[in-house]
């Protein structure tokens, strides 16, 4: 019985010794660490307030593959005012540079951390896409604005993804495979920029209304553009057509709306899916009023006189419109009028009126 107790007591002691001597980490049990490596990209670029967890892999005697030794690393930083460390997590504190040091069993590694001002905004150009299935477009350019107001082009550092399989990313381009909507997302550090993408089917016909119009200076008019698909369905393309003007000094088009600038003519050409439409624009000055050569007439019987009428425009321009005006008399028995020539017929009073475009002028006539 005593022998059994002694044996059990010895076994228990052996277990205790083994437990004390056995390492809590795999490193001591398998041999020496010959080298370590911080696997995160170097230099590590961070913005103020951003954090990142570092990972350390080691070459360890007795192992063919590198081992994750992150938990056993002793960390330090060259500049705690720029970057601090807590359990392998780097926190960016202020703009500047700091070297992060890692040590395991005498093996050392380091990584340079570059900290920039906090990102205030991120934007992509273009902000959205619309293209036909089967076609492709270059990925957007992306810029950021930091808290200090500095703008940076970060296009080459963006990691892009798409929200569904309607589009694919290939060689720096986005290609639309199936009609529908896709969200293109670009990630830069902790910031994400989103670019909506509309993939459309092939349009077989594009029509614009009106094909010709006349407008006054500094006026606007929306153009209506309808596209027809191969299956007969239609779509309003009014704000999707790309327009050019043959004379930008006379008329321009923005978001499907014509804006006139000066008197003259311009041909507006719209394109959509390699199809072309045209609208002719004539810009004329606005008629302000008609000015008669005389404000009133007094005639004797059988007497006559000839009136002239001048059109005055908002540009200050004037022109004689006597022969193109429509003339009338309220009492032809008192006086008649033809192309501005007034002939007294009988005693009394009448009014002679000249109308041209949307204006008219009236001249009172007395026949004695």
TrEMBL record:
Keywords: Signal. Residues 32-114, 118-198, 202-282, 284-366 form the BIG2 domain. InterPro entries: Big_2, Invasin/intimin_cell_adhesion. Residues 1-28 form the signal peptide. The keyword Membrane does not apply. This is BIG2 domain-containing protein. The lineage of its organism: Bacteria, Bacillati, Bacillota, Bacilli, Bacillales.
């Amino acid at each position: 019985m005593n022998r059994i107790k002694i044996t059990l007591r010895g076994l228990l002691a052996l277990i205790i010794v083994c437990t004390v001597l056995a390492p809590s980490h795999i490193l001591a049990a398998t041999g020496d660490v010959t080298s370590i490596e911080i696997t995160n990209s170097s230099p590590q670029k961070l913005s103020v307030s951003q954090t990142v967890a570092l990972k350390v892999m080691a070459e360890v005697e007795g192992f063919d593959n590198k081992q994750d030794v992150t938990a056993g690393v002793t960390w330090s930083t060259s500049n705690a005012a720029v970057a601090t460390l807590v359990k392998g997590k780097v926190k960016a504190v202020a703009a500047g540079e700091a070297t992060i040091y890692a040590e395991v069993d005498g093996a050392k590694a380091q990584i340079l951390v570059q900290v920039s001002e906090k990102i205030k905004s991120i934007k992509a150009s273009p902000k959205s896409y619309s293209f036909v299935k089967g076609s492709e477009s270059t990925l957007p350019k992306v810029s950021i604005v930091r808290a200090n107001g500095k703008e940076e082009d970060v296009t080459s550092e963006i990691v892009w993804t798409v929200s569904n399989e309607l589009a694919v990313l290939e060689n720096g381009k986005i290609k639309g495979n199936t009609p529908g909507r896709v969200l293109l997302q670009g990630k830069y550090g902790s910031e994400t920029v989103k670019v909506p993408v509309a993939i459309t089917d092939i349009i077989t016909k594009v029509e614009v209304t009106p094909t010709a119009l006349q407008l006054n200076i500094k006026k606007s008019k929306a153009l209506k553009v309808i596209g027809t698909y191969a299956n007969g369905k239609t779509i309003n393309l009014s704000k999707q057509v790309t327009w050019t003007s043959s004379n930008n000094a006379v008329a321009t088009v923005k978001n499907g709306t014509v804006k006139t600038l000066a008197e003259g003519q311009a041909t507006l050409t719209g394109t959509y899916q390699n199809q072309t439409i045209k609208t002719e624009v004539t810009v004329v000055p606005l008629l302000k009023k008609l000015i008669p050569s005389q404000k009133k007439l007094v005639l004797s019987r059988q007497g006559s006189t000839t009136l002239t009428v001048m059109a005055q425009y908002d540009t200050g321009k004037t022109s004689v419109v006597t022969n193109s005006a429509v003339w009338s008399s309220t009492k032809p028995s008192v006086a008649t009028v033809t192309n501005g020539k007034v002939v007294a017929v009988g005693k009394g009073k009448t009014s002679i009126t000249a109308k041209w475009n949307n204006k008219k002028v009236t001249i009172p006539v007395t026949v004695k």
